[in-house]
Amino acid sequence: MVIKKPRIVIIGAGMAGLTAANKLYKSGVKKGAFELCVVEGGNRIGGRINSSEFGGDRIEMGATWIHGIEGSPVHKIAQEINSFESEQPWECMDGFLDDPITIAENGYVLNSSLVDPISDLFNNLMNFAQGKKKLIGEGIEIGIGTDFGRNGNSSVGSFLKKGLESYWKLESRNETEGVFGCGEWNRKSLEEAIFAMHENTQRTFTAANDLHNLDYLAESKYIMFPGEEITIAKGYSSIIESLASVLPPGVVQLNKKVNIIEWQPESVMGIMGNIQGGNSSRPVKIHFLDGTSMSADHVVVTVSLGVLKAGIFNDNNDSGVFQFKPPLPNHKIEAISRLGYGVVNKLFLKLSPDYNPSINRFPFLQMVFHKPDHQVKNPKIPSYIATGSSIADMDTVAEPMPNSTVFGSTSGSPQLQILFAGEATHKTHYSTTHGAYLSGIREANRLLQHYHCLDV
Ligand SMILES: Cc1cc2nc3c(=O)[nH]c(=O)nc-3n(C[C@H](O)[C@H](O)[C@H](O)COP(=O)(O)OP(=O)(O)OC[C@H]3O[C@@H](n4cnc5c(N)ncnc54)[C@H](O)[C@@H]3O)c2cc1C
């Protein structure tokens, strides 16, 4: 009798999928323990990492920053492959620029004496909400003492609003106080717009469409790596290429969009034949949009939270969306529904050929608008903890199925048929490339441990 090697199929060739593949290949496949395949729906690897070129410079269509270099696995890889040096200019090679010039709608350049107190207020409030500071600022009162949001269901947006109102009360601000040289703006409306500008920047850091949807309590649980935030001269894609480079040709298959994952939640007598139309003893069957299919013992799902959500809320009965057969258990569906997922866009502008950067460096501009939805700067994060959800929901999304170690799961059916990785499954580093990386390592280790090959 020929004993088949366990077959692991990873869905998605982004940071999480390729990290898991890299780890599984080096620790298991190379030693003959498994078969491995990565299927990617798009026509390139990298997912939300995509280095490109614009006006002769290397730009990042997706992830740009290493958020804190100390302890970051992404920083470690970039160092190992010498990715911090490049002849070609790259996006944000100058890091964060200091001293922004703030311009209000209709072209009024704002004095820093007007902007700075509001910027300081906003930063103090956010640092407090994120647990980085114990005090908000002298005289600012929000709720009783510092217990705002203790009972859950409070948002970062409502906390910030209370902070601004308390500041205005302290400053006895009213609408009659004008600002010289600023047309129809009065001081209060300008302060409100400056505050909104910072809120919009914060929205790009969190991808929350509105900070009133961002859970207040979860904000302080988020972990940042210490140290500088830097960009990668050779491009973020160099990290992806390095992870993929260990995999032999053919392991990664592009243009293979997964449509349905059939799995076996219940213990069945003789799995063989139970998989519709299949003759394989492997418990999972993956159906692709091109009509082909593949069987597997384990599937590591690394598609984004947005793709999982689309599969759940398939209101248009679109047969092309990502689905599970039978559907995911209710507690998992509820967690996926509760968590937030936003859109982050970037805009690149090309300056006129007359502009000479060696004479006049393009300033760091901040724009203040009457309508609070215009700021674009360092966009970043896709998943967030929405009000009403919690970081426990990320653990729920990450739970493998079936898993006999989890209360209530069905024993007897083949274990770990479906595993989940991706930035939205990491409860303290979600929304980042390193969160995706760590989730890939976590699920690779889970399988290596399952087959007792962690130290092979
Ligand atoms: C504009 C922008 C800027 C960002 N900036 C930063 C930053 O500066 N720093 C930072 O740390 N993070 C940043 N991020 C976040 C970071 O890019 C992501 O957290 C990370 O890349 C996610 O990796 P992942 O593997 O979890 O998911 P993904 O990269 O989304 O990978 C999932 C893969 O699954 C594939 N897939 C989807 N559906 C299917 C299907 N049905 N069948 C087969 N394959 C499928 C996708 O094509 C994709 O390749 C940014 C994100 C964006 C959008």
TrEMBL record:
GO terms for molecular function: polyamine oxidase activity. This is Amine oxidase domain-containing protein. Belongs to the flavin monoamine oxidase family. Pfam families: Amino_oxidase. Residues 15-350, 400-448 form the Amine oxidase domain. PANTHER family: FLAVIN MONOAMINE OXIDASE, NON-SPECIFIC POLYAMINE OXIDASE. It comes from the Eukaryota.
